[in-house]
Amino acid sequence: MTASVQADWKVIAFRLKDEEYALPVQHVRSIEKMQPITRVPGTAHYVKGVINLRGVVTPIIDLRERFGFAPEPYGEQTRIIIAALEDMEVGLIVDAANDVLDLPTESIEPPPEAIGSVEASYIDGVAKVENRLLILLDLAKVLDR
Amino acid sequence: MDMSQYLDLFIDESKEHLQTINERLLELEKTPEDMSVVNDIFRSAHTLKGMSATMGFEDLANLTHQMENVLDGIRNRRLSVTPELLDVIFEAVDHLETMISSIAAGGDGTCDVRGTIELLKQIEQGEMPNKQAAREEPPLEHAYGEFEYHVLEQAMEQGFSVYEILVRLRDDCLLKAARVYMVFEQLNEVGEIVKATPPVEMLEEEQFDREFLVTVVSKAPADELQKRLMSISEIDDVKVSRLSSDGPPSESEKAAASQQPAAMEQAAAVQAEAEAPEKQTVKQATKTIRVNIERLDRLMNLFEELVVDRGRLEQISRELNHAELTETVERMSRISSDLQTIILNMRMVPVETVFNRFPRMVRQLARELGKKVRLDIIGADTELDRTVIDEIGDPLVHLIRNALDHGIEAPDVRAGRGKPEEGIIQLRAYHSGNHVFIEIEDDGAGISREKVLQKAKSRGIVSPQAAEHLNDQQIYELIFAPGFSTAEKVSDISGRGVGLDVVKSTIESLGGTVSVDSQPGKGSLFSIQLPLTLSIISVLLVQIVEETYAIPLSSIIETALVKKEEIFSAHNQPVIDFRGKIVPLVRLKDVFAVPGAADDGDVMAVVIVRKGEKLAALAVDSFIGQQEVVLKSLGNYLSSVFAISGATILGDGRVALIIDCNALVK
């Protein structure tokens, strides 16, 4: 999948381990603080359960575990990014989320063979902004079971 | 005066009355001798007549009027209830429904009902030639009960006069209830009203034609009463007659208002019988207003947020331990849980509102087709979201017509096949897990695999090659394909140009599915599965270690405490003895791999659940309590989780999972 050509990409940047990732804003509904999660038995290990998001029961995925990173205890910075794709709405647990960025199209490059620790298949591209490296996530692949 | 503001009310109430008439007519068919049923029908028809006349729908009023006459004949046992007579009445009711629908759709409610009126007249006269034409407007007369009689007698002894006043409103009087009120007020100024016919409640609800009769105890002379009442506008005529104690006043007495002492016992005895049933005629129809569903949705969502905050408040107040705060929060909690119940129930409608038109339909179709059919309805109280209710009617009509037309065989065919002549169509509704199921099962001929295949091939719905590989189930599903119709000849019943594909698409548009199963010679089963977009169920909340789960009350037989030594093992499966039955024990702790599971104590809490005839005992740590909850889906991402049918949000804002017992009972 390639990034569609747009003048600018508005993205939500978030931190996972020591790397920065980004999701296009049109996929992001909201960013929530950590809250009690109800475990759902018999689901994949990275599905932490469901939360009550203003009356809607929303499944929560721990992105660290989704990508096979070592789990870390949740802290003050931990956030849940509520992302939507077609008729699915899920929450993604990330280490921190605090940035909305405009990515100029020319800053986006196709994913290199091996980047960071995430399998290349989840990656839509990478972007260099000033001296930061942002990994653009392909939400469809992340949500693919 | 503009009547349009009353139109919605008129339509709603008319529909309610028609429904009552429909239901009661079916009852009447079964128990033709039950006069209370006839009375109910008569009352509804009468009210309908009054309302439609007021609203200016003449065809409607004329037809109900004629219907009323026939009903009256039945009531007075001058006519007997025969299927033919009911057919004509049903036809009349059909016309009434058409007219009401036309009015609801903005039409003028006119309809050519002369034929039906003529039929009704023939019935009325054919069976009973010397009918009294005056019956439709019976002279209003008062019948006094013993108590009332004593009151009047006492009043007369104390020098009061008792008047019977017949008030007739003008034909074009619009605010009849208001005039009634004014009459009553005028009379109350100079005396006391003892009795009114029709009763006051009916007068207030404008359930009378033009005339009403009141009995007044007063010291004022008759002409003053007359004058007072005539001063009220829109009153056509007032007849004041002074009542003496020796019997009902004669015509001349009425005019002269003369005075004669005697007893009224005779009148009371004769008339009490005739009027007694009228006393219970207070309308039973419910009062409704219509609210846009979107508003209810918003209300619901807002309320859910409120519930979350309520949970937080409760927690804070517990932590602070401040007496006044705790008290206030507790009060708020109580109020909001009442509110919750109301809001949750507002959108839900029992499926009965759809089902109750089917007995009529089946009866009529069966007669047209010359078949004997019984319709059994099970689970009519199953509640469904209003939006689903509104849409589900037509597909069900279609499927039931289908079952009658293609499913159930003619009586002689059935007899030849060794089946009872009367076919049975069963209509079932029930909740199961995340869904509501509506099933239509008939014990008819079933679906002919060969005919379906042949037709599908000839219509090009399936290629001959593909047809080779289809199993029975897939072949049956072909009948839902667009352009498919198995009827060999197009009949009036199901061959109406719409096929089962329309049924399928309607149900799918509601997010549901429809499937069919059939056994040749034994019958077919159409099963509709509908999602519970918003459904309330009663659950038992249970605790398993730290987690809370909800078990639908509908699956629970009972809860029990089981001692450790009462658990046996059979084929490596733990079982318990539940009232003499061996029931497998399912440890939810293990099924759901609950973390931190401790050892079972000496006593184990179990919930006995059922799936059909089979039972299972679900072991939990403790019971929390029973609660009504909103059933929510886990979302599209988690579409199928084993033994979990959905989730709900508890009072504290947390999510609890709802256990699908069907998956746990093997």
Automatic annotation (TrEMBL), chain A:
Pfam families: CheW
Transmembrane segments: none
Entries under PROSITE patterns matching the protein: CHEW
A single GO BP: signal transduction
Family annotation (InterPro entries): CheW, CheW-like_dom_sf, CheW-lke_dom
GO cellular component: cytosol
PANTHER family (alphabetical): CHEMOTAXIS PROTEIN CHEW, CHEMOTAXIS SENSOR HISTIDINE KINASE-RELATED
Protein's recorded name: Chemotaxis protein CheW
Organism: Geobacillus thermocatenulatus
Lineage: Bacteria, Bacillati, Bacillota, Bacilli, Bacillales
Automatic annotation (TrEMBL), chain B:
Documented EC number(s): 2.7.13.3
GO CC annotation: cytoplasm
GO term, biological process aspect, one: chemotaxis
Keyword Endoplasmic reticulum attached: no
Catalytic activity: ATP + protein L-histidine = ADP + protein N-phospho-L-histidine
Pfam families: CheW (PF01584), H-kinase_dim (PF02895), HATPase_c (PF02518), Hpt (PF01627), P2 (PF07194)
InterPro entries given in the database record: Bact_Chemotaxis_CheA, CheA-like_dim, CheA-like_homodim_sf, CheA-like_P2_sf, CheA_P2-bd, CheW-like_dom_sf, CheW-lke_dom, CheY-binding_CheA
Keyword Transferase recorded: yes
Gene3D superfamilies cross-referenced by the UniProt entry: Histidine kinase CheA-like, homodimeric domain, Histidine kinase CheA-like, P2 response regulator-binding domain, Histidine kinase-like ATPase, C-terminal domain, HPT domain, SH3 Domains
Enzyme class: transferase
Superkingdom of the organism of origin: Bacteria
Keyword tags: ATP-binding, Chemotaxis, Kinase, Nucleotide-binding, Phosphoprotein, Transferase, Two-component regulatory system
GO molecular function, one term: ATP binding
Region named Disordered: 240-282
Listed Low complexity bias regions: 255-274
CDD domains, alphabetized: CheA_reg, HATPase_CheA-like, HPT
Record-linked SMART domains: CheW, H-kinase_dim, HATPase_c, HPT
Protein name: Chemotaxis protein CheA
Organism: Geobacillus thermocatenulatus
Taxonomy of the source species: Bacteria, Bacillati, Bacillota, Bacilli, Bacillales
